[in-house]
Amino acid sequence: MSAPRLEVDLEKIRHNASALVSKLGGHGISVTGVTKACLGEPRVAKTLLAAGVKGLGDSRIENIEAMRRAGIAAPMTLIRSPMPSQAARVVAHADISFNTELDVIAALSSAARRAGKRHGVVLMVEMGDLREGIMPGDLQDTVRAALRFPNIDLKGIGTNLACQSGVSPDTRNMSELSRLADLLDADFGLVTRVVSGGNSSNLKWALSGEKAGRVNDLRLGESILLGLDPLDRLPIEGLYTDAISLVAEVIETKTKPFRPWGTIAQAAFGGTPLSANDGSASRTILALGRQDIDPLGLTAEPGIRVLGASSDHLVVDAGTCHVTAGSEMTFQLNYSALLRAMTSPFVTKTYSLPAGQGAFESRRAPGPRSSEEPHQWH
């Protein structure tokens, strides 16, 4: 079996998605399944749809095109504002796109008119996280202008939080989003059929018992794939946290001192990491590096500690674990490490099939996991 590799358990992803669809459905909120961390992998997309998500969202038109080529006809939303240079591709393959600039909507309008199609637009509103978004005071004028574009259907509004500045979704900002939706409908008629409240970081708010107001959609990726809450990276009860694992192969294992010696300058990626410990330890090197993963985003098996990484080497303290060259270690990943591993052409991706449908031949026999059972809902 090739290494390094990601092992993706589609049945656990299905379980996580289904659990969140059910929980949020009880609050009147539907789920858009976000596929960007898996590069629009059709097997993941089909698993999300089978679990009940209402549609798929991705930040790259290339991923949406890949899913269309795979025959996926579900509603698809481009959740990053389109580049004007890609307007024709967006109109051809995405049903809806998130937008903040009238110049971009103008490009989409022209492309849709040439293609004889209509394209849906959701206007993103800035609610404090300072990434993309129209300032609330400018929203009415933007809506008024957007409604004039031919071949454009205004579907609603949305926002994004906790990505750029860590601003948490809460009653205050979600109520403000609902208020803006009401204001637009009062001024322009029913133009906010979609009120997309945010991403996986909205789950605490959405499931807290607070009224959802006008929010009727969340875009979920990290919570489904990793079973973690982005606000604190703690496990979400009822979900698997090991649906995706990373397996790497050992290429060296030796006992070496804790401290480096010689004249110390900057390391390959900056900094001068020095150990405060004396003595020696079992230092193990795996064929995996920063070109493939974010080393800070890896959680090793019990008894193993990640020490650092260069471009192509991951160094761990194996402790008392007996490892030899050619043996494998399994890691769990956070979202940053997952994104980089999925993007790396040097990391093989393997997929199990949902229960009752067999498995791909490339699927490795299950190894140690951080959590073989889902966390329980209180």
TrEMBL record:
Residues 358-378 are annotated as: Disordered. SUPFAM superfamilies: PLP-binding barrel (SSF51419). This is Putative amino acid racemase. Pfam families: Ala_racemase_N (PF01168). It comes from Roseibium marinum. The keyword tRNA processing does not apply. GO terms for cellular component: cytosol. CDD domains: PLPDE_III_AR_like_1 (cd06815). GO terms for molecular function: alanine racemase activity; pyridoxal phosphate binding. Signal peptide: none annotated. Its cofactor is pyridoxal 5'-phosphate. Keywords: Isomerase, Pyridoxal phosphate. The keyword Cytoplasm does not apply. Residues 8-224 form the Alanine racemase N-terminal domain.
